[in-house]
Design goal:
The protein is an alpha/beta fold. The chain is built from 15 helices and 20 strands. Bound molecules: iron/sulfur cluster.
Length: 479
């Protein structure tokens, strides 16, 4: 096709957008909100950046590497403007909030910058751009704007619901308070209404989101007002919620009433991501975490008493400034003693505007690398052993998609383990259905099984997926 025809073809078809998402579940949900707004305006999603009239890069800044990747992706996308001069490129997410104007200077072809608390303003920002400006919409409104009718839900099994955004904790390594702003909660009524809406729409699994999700409190409710234990109780009682999860929990904010909810409601998944970050008290203190390793062990024991089948996962930062061999050995001991079902360990990465680099001597990178490998080496046999316990059992698997190997599908057990199973005949089990799978083999990171009998239950609807989600870390890596 020659150039004029190509231009005419673009002008004649509906405008298309492409969203690339990095980072945590909050960013995933923000991308779904951006998509919803754009689709209300008549734009259509595309999976092909070269077909797009608008590219949104929803970025993550939790680690330095993630941020570097954002700028290199922008470098790739700006080349598409040679072919399509009308293409608009917007930087969204945490790098957008942190960099603001600087991003416009660094990337001359960037059209606008949109912080995570301002995603609801995407149409206004596009209008401003059409008027010739290069807008920067960052900062934090006092209340959370979550028009849940406008969200284009990605995937067909998990409905994510933001309940609290931002963070007031100021852990010394973390950039999130700068990029997500001060903590703001939504009301219990609003949250329950959104959960009901999702269940009516066909979602079976609800995931409550917040940087410190268990620090949710009813806005204006005061000390005696509803807290996260009350919210969990209310959401678990919504008819049709089959699996309820929440991320990311802050260990110090867990109360006995929250632990109790695991025992009270079977539909609260026996899975909890509980970032500990280090096994050493001096390191925890320099991190500003506000809890001791002894209290973390006690909390784990309480959770296991309340729900013996609970699977725990955690985040670890290896090589925090001043981390000694002894500090690291304590982290390693924690890993072997607690036996996490999974863990996400990362080398410490200094972030701008944080206190940590001043709090201890930088750990030599080769030493940090070696410590990280020792953590993975210690964790792998634990995961294999825990997974092996499921061999020969039947588990209820929430079907989540196709497997990497042709003819296979994947799903998640109630405790969030990944299961691969072959297609039965020529009929796939629809995403979002619950299938009974007999586990035949255990690997370190997943289970392999065979579907047994009829599908447990089916859903009324299926939701097409249109977003590309590129994840640097499988969890928020905060809290
Ligand atoms: S690590 Fe979590 S709790 Fe700490 S400042 Fe970051 S988001 Fe807040």
């Amino acid at each position: 096709m020659n150039e004029p025809n190509r231009g005419r073809a673009r002008a004649e078809r509906p405008r298309r957008f492409f969203v690339e998402t990095w980072g945590c579940q909050m960013n995933e949900l923000d991308s779904q909100r951006l998509s919803g707004r754009l689709m209300e305006e008549g734009m259509l999603p595309t999976r092909e950046p070269s077909e797009a009239d608008l590219i949104l890069l929803n970025s993550c800044s939790v680690r330095e590497k993630a941020e570097q990747k954002v700028y290199s992706r922008l470098g790739v996308y700006r080349q598409l403007k040679d072919e399509n001069p009308g293409l608009l490129i917007g930087l969204c997410g945490c790098v957008a909030q942190e960099a603001g104007e600087r991003a416009l200077k660094r990337v001359p072809d960037l059209d606008f910058v949109l912080g995570p608390a301002r995603v609801g303003e995407i149409l206004d920002v596009l209008a401003e751009r059409r008027r010739g400006k290069r807008p920067v919409a960052t900062g934090f409104p006092e209340t959370l704007d979550h028009d849940f009718d406008s969200i284009s839900r990605d995937g067909s099994y998990k409905g994510m619901v933001t309940i609290v955004e931002g963070c007031n904790k100021n852990c010394t390594f973390c950039i999130v308070p700068l990029t997500r702003g001060p903590e703001r909660s939504r009301t219990l009524g609003e949250i329950v209404a959104e959960v009901r809406h999702l269940v009516e729409y066909g979602f079976r699994e609800i995931e409550l989101l917040g940087q410190t999700v268990n620090h949710w409190r009813e806005p204006g409710g005061g000390e005696d007002g509803p807290d996260f234990a009350d919210l969990l109780d209310a959401v678990a009682r919504v008819p049709g919620v089959e699996r309820l999860r929440f991320v990311t929990s802050y260990p110090r904010d867990f109360t006995p009433r929250m632990v109790e909810q695991f025992a009270r409601h079977d539909n609260i998944s026996p899975y909890l991501h509980l970032p500990v970050q280090s096994g050493s008290n001096p390191v925890l203190q320099r991190m500003g975490r506000g809890y001791s390793i002894e209290s973390y062990y006690e909390l784990v024991a309480d959770l296991r008493r309340a729900r013996p089948d609970i699977a725990l996962s955690t985040d670890l930062i290896i090589g925090f400034p001043g981390e000694t061999d002894e500090d690291f050995e304590q982290t390693l001991r924690l890993v072997t003693e607690i036996e996490f079902g999974s863990l996400f360990a990362f080398k410490y990465s200094p972030r701008p505007g944080t206190a940590a680099p001043r709090l201890g001597e930088a750990v030599n990178q080769a030493i940090a690398d070696e410590r990280l490998q020792r953590i993975f080496a210690a964790q792998e046999p634990i995961q294999r052993r825990l997974n092996r316990r499921l061999v020969g059992t039947e588990v209820e698997v929430l079907v989540t998609g196709w497997g990497k190997r042709p003819g296979t599908q994947t799903g998640r057990t109630p405790c969030h383990r990944l299961v691969h199973f072959p297609l039965e005949g020529s009929h796939p089990t629809p995403n979002g259905d619950i299938a009974t799978v007999k586990i035949e083999e255990a690997l370190a990171h997943s289970l392999i099984g065979r579907r047994n009998g009829e599908i447990g239950a089916t859903r009324p609807t299926d939701v097409p997926s249109q977003l590309v989600v590129l994840r640097d870390a499988p969890t928020d890596a905060a809290s």
